[in-house]
Design goal:
Length: 303
């Protein structure tokens, strides 16, 4: 039997429509338009696409996006000076620095310099600390999107065994923390795995909910998944894949695939996210929500 699809794209569209209404209400009440500053350093093609998508998504819900494109060779001091300027600017509510930064720039130093009240990615240690204590200010976009997706499909997390494969600061660790929170969307029993985990398939097979955030194409195979499990695929990997065209000829095409072997795993899982159209659209959506919440926060308690 084939798994049910967790439609991230459709869910993201619904949430974006809700955010658009909320933004309009906020603007009507405060006469302030939420504004997000997006900083891109260098010419990385994937980052350019991500940033453009974020810009378009902002426009569609009424969040103002302010783009700052800096050359590859920008010195750290210049980037830090821009962040200080944006921190001090009351008309800017959220600041996002697109990662990865060019070699030679200390990523941590840059992210730590963002005012925690404007840290819409929730990477600042203060926001990570608040999340780990169960009183989050902003929720990190990808894990937050996954939590909202599961809630939309009424997938229970309470008391469930959740296994997250990947321990990055951006996805794996905060994902584990979110499932661990008390209350709706949390209350799970969480295991976080990584490249040093022994007997990984044995552990993943115990998961009622399995989240793959590894960065390795089609790594999770069908025999790593418990029948009926919910499988969330965070991975975004570009690979050359062999396909057969309408004339029966085999050819290599460039394809975006996840960390889960979708075709095989969908025959075992109960629910599964596709790639593309799964987690990706939700990540950007949660960024929009964080930008609105940042504007609310700063309007309620101006510095
Ligand atoms: P990282 O490279 O930072 O982390 C990967 C994690 O996977 C690490 O913790 C690593 O372990 C673990 N890992 C690697 N190999 C194995 C293995 N063989 N067995 C078990 N664990 C392993 O990646 P990110 O968390 O930033 O991203 C993960 C994936 O998600 C990528 O494909 C990325 O493109 C995608 N992504 C998608 C987003 C979206 O919106 N859809 C948003 C963010 C990321 P260790 O720590 O030991 O090295």
């Amino acid at each position: 039997m084939s798994a049910n699809i967790l439609d991230g794209k459709g869910t993201a569209e619904q949430i974006r429509a809700e955010i658009k209404e909320e933004v309009a209400k906020f603007v009507a009440e405060t006469k302030i338009q939420p504004a997000l500053a997006v900083v891109l350093v260098g010419e990385d093609p994937a980052s350019q696409v991500y940033v453009r998508n974020k810009e378009l998504a902002c426009e569609k819900v009424g969040v103002k996006s302010l783009m700052y494109r800096l050359p590859q060779e920008t010195p750290s001091e210049e980037l830090l000076a821009l962040i200080a300027k944006l921190n001090a600017d009351n008309s800017v509510h959220g600041i996002l620095v697109q990662l990865p930064l060019p070699k030679g720039i200390d990523e941590k130093k840059v992210l730590d310099a963002i005012d925690p009240q404007k840290d819409v990615d929730a990477f600042h240690p203060e926001n990570v600390g608040l999340l780990s204590q169960g009183r989050p200010r902003f929720l990190p976009c990808t894990p937050y999107g996954i939590q909202r997706l599961l809630r939309r499909y009424e997938i229970e997390t309470k008391g469930k065994r959740v296994v997250v494969v990947g321990r990055s600061d951006i996805v794996g660790k905060p994902m584990g923390l979110l499932f661990l929170q008390k209350g709706e969307g949390g209350d799970a029993t969480v295991t976080i795995c990584h490249s040093r985990t022994e007997n990984l398939p044995e552990i993943t097979r115990q998961a009622d909910i399995l989240v793959a955030a590894i960065g390795k194409a089609e790594f999770v195979k069908a025999d790593m998944v418990k029948p009926g499990a919910v499988v969330v695929d965070v991975g975004m990997n570009r690979i050359a894949k062999e396909t057969t065209d309408e004339n029966g000829e085999k050819k290599l095409v460039n394809k975006l695939v996840g960390d889960v072997d979708f075709d095989a795993v969908k025959e075992v899982a109960g629910w599964i996210t596709p790639v593309p159209g799964g987690v990706g659209p939700l990540t950007v959506t949660m960024l929009l929500l964080n930008a609105l919440n940042a504007a609310r926060l700063q309007t309620a308690a101006p510095k």
